[in-house]
Design goal:
Number of helices of chain B: 4
Largest interface: A-B, 56 and 51 residues
Structural class of chain B: alpha+beta
Largest sheet of chain A: 7 strands, mixed, barrel
Oligomer: heterodimer
Number of strands of chain A: 12
Number of domains of chain B: 2
Structural class of chain A: alpha+beta
Number of helices of chain A: 9
CATH architecture of the largest domain in chain A: Beta Barrel
Order of helices and strands of chain B: EEHEEEEEEEEEEHEEEEEEEHEH
Strand content of chain A: 25-35%
Strand order of the largest sheet of chain B: 12-19-16-17-14-13-20
CATH class of the largest domain in chain B: Mainly Beta
Shape of chain B: elongated
Radius of gyration of chain B: 20 Å
Amino acid sequence: MKTRYTYGGDEHIYVEMDDEMSLDAFFKSLSMSNAVRDAKIKGVTEICPANASFQVRFDPDVISPDEMMAKVKELEHKAEDADKRLKTRIIEIPVYYQDPWTHETLMRFRERHQDPSGTDLDYAARINGFDSAEAFIEAHHSQPWFVSMVGFVAGLPFLYQLVERDKQLQVPKYLRPRTDTPKQTVGYGGCFSCIYSVRGAGGYQMFGITPMPIFDPEQKQSYLSDFMVFFKPGDIVKWKPIDRAEYDRILAEVEADTYVPRIAEVDFDLDAFNADMQGTNAKLMEALHVA
Amino acid sequence: MSLKIMQPGLSTSIQDLGRPGYFHLGIPIGGAMDRFALRVANMLVGNPEGAAGLEVVFMGPVITFENDALVAVTGADLPPKVDGVVQPGWTAFEIKAGQTLSFDFLKSGARAYIAISGGIDTPPALGSRSTYPIGALGGLDGRNIQAGDVIPLGEVDMIEPGLHVPADLRRLPGNPAELRILPGLYWHRLTPAAQEGFFADDWAVALEADRMGYRFKGGKPLEFVEREQPFGAGADPSNIVDGCYSYGSVQVPGGLEPIVLHRDAVSGGGYFTLGAVISADMDLIGQLQPHTPVRFKKVDMEEALAARAARKKMLADVRAHLG
């Protein structure tokens, strides 16, 4: 892992911890972006952590780009020494896989897909060596995920699965992006899953939909009362497969503003996870059911 | 104090100087595409420079005023009319209660800014009145304006009409337009020939040119340095592990058509970026019409900062001129 520093025009510094994705790169990026925030450098206007990189926006009228770059570089050792532990939360997100709405959408944009003859899930299952879409779905929801970035559009989480590299699911994006994606679609591109927070354009494969809103400027749901965006980097997600009846039941609660997602406070320790992934995940998922 | 929208125009939105501070959550910085023009329009009518006004694209709205007001139109050359009588651009003019503001056809540029004394007084969202329709934030109900809308205005002590900004204190792109770019970010992904070709080629603004980004076409496809794609990046050589996008950064999906990300751009994604348009030139992009010829000019950080200082001085000159 070799850190690369560069400028994004005259108002941004871009720091790439690694050109490939890993939890080590994510933790280092999060630690270092936190160190930059804690340093309260005059002239910094935004700090945006991403999967394996982060970006600092600054006002070059207040601090020169050279000086800003030097101050950011000085903080790299702090990221290296930082604890790879997080106090965070695990959230159970209900997913209606193979739902009618993403199915209608994926059929509408079939000519933009690698395999126009099947569905996104059939394609993802085949290229990842699964016998059926159902087996792929099982792999998608059986182990938890880490929110490694929030962005693209309002409050959209990128999620990275907590499994060994050789068990990571990988799918390409659509050949040409769609102009439409249903709100709350559970998508997949590269090694990342995501939830489309709003309706709109998108290039990720579509696997299902969650009835749970994750972005609402009106903040009607209790879990959005603090802020209109639900996710933050470091959150852990467990997908829970649901059927149409449960989808409708949850949707009714959402519409009555009474839906309460299952959430538990947990600690995540990267070294402990690397030493025993199955055991760490089992403990994380247990927490959802003792709370 | 309010305005009544009789016709909305093509795509008219309420904008101020933007909504910084939420980019890390995917909420864009937003605000006027040509912030220089919005600032000057506000100065002309005696508003704070960051007051909310209307950003008008290509075709003007028709607006009836309920109260006397002072109005200025800057940016694109889209001649304003009061009850059918043409008024000068970049000049504060009076409009009386019951009169109607409309517009002649666009003569040059792409976006005009309408400032009204008192400023638009819709409820701010996350500290800004700027409209971000994708997130249903800001503006009026989070959307662009529509016929029938009634837009509230702030209270004001009116100043005298007649303030004017002469042509030498305005800033509009040339033809061909020149956009200065500081190479960086994932610049190393391009071969030396592609790096050279990008700045040597003739480009033109494509039809997909909006608040999210401006696409350009006409140059040669860009070739990438060969590599085995890193884990998680995706198979296309233009893919990276999804990261943040800088304001003004230039992405080239598939190496084909460059897109300069603008005020309402997505905050991150999986395409490589070859650098960013310098901050001093971002306002110019908002004034480019589709098909406008464009050259990209390579600059270093020193030149970028000098251009930024020159732009700042121009704004200071306008302030001094208007007293």
